[in-house]
Design goal:
206 residues; ten-stranded antiparallel sheet; 5 helices; alpha+beta
């Protein structure tokens, strides 16, 4: 009788583990949820970009002057703004360029929350990014940029298109040191470090 009782307990434990399994995929992203502060010493320095580049220059968008200055920094984004194949209003190009630069520049603070269908990332200045980790694209109508996001090996991988250069943005937490690393891989070999930028965040002390 005792043997049957032990076997019954074993089966109950297994059943409990199986019933919890569906939540595992959702918990895969739980570790990035929280409030994070930029660790400047551990992060890559942002590419240098003269502020004058943000001003549109008539039909020849602000990015054209940037492109003439050559390869350093996010030059590919500047050229994409002016010659990304979309043409159109210079203000639209300026917004697209600024959006790409905001992606490249690391916010001082990130607040990451999660709903059933979305991951919501809020920067310290109030800018909000929505990610749909089921692979559904989310397009920003004001800039023309689109994100397609998926879970991959315990990380969040977001593909950003709509500019000249495709950007792969990955969110991953180091479980040992509990640091969040946001890695940007820009499809532009002319950029420093082959177009890879890493932003490292520590948990907010509050």
């Amino acid at each position: 009788m005792r043997r049957w009782t032990a076997a019954g307990l074993s089966l109950a434990l297994c059943a409990g583990a199986l019933s919890a399994a569906p939540h595992g995929a959702h918990a895969e992203t739980a570790s990035i949820v929280g409030v994070w502060t930029l660790n400047k010493d551990a992060s890559d320095a942002p590419p240098e970009r003269p502020s004058a580049d943000l001003r549109p220059r008539g039909g020849d968008a602000a990015g054209t002057g940037r492109g003439r200055r050559g390869g350093g920094g996010g030059g590919g984004f500047g050229r994409g703004g002016g010659r990304g194949g979309r043409g159109g209003d210079p203000e639209d190009m300026r917004r697209r360029m600024q959006a790409m630069r905001d992606i490249m520049d690391a916010p001082e603070r990130l607040t990451i929350t999660q709903t059933e269908s979305l991951i919501i990332i809020t920067a310290g200045d109030g800018r909000t990014t929505r990610l749909s980790p089921d692979g559904k694209g989310i397009k920003d109508e004001s800039t023309g940029l689109q994100r397609k996001t998926k879970r991959e090996n315990g990380t969040i991988v977001s593909e950003i298109t709509g500019g000249r250069d495709k950007v792969i943005e990955t969110y991953a937490v180091d479980p040992e040191h509990h640091r969040l690393t946001v890695t940007l891989r820009i499809d532009n070999s002319r950029m420093p470090n082959g177009g890879v930028i890493r932003h490292v965040y520590d948990p907010d002390p509050q």
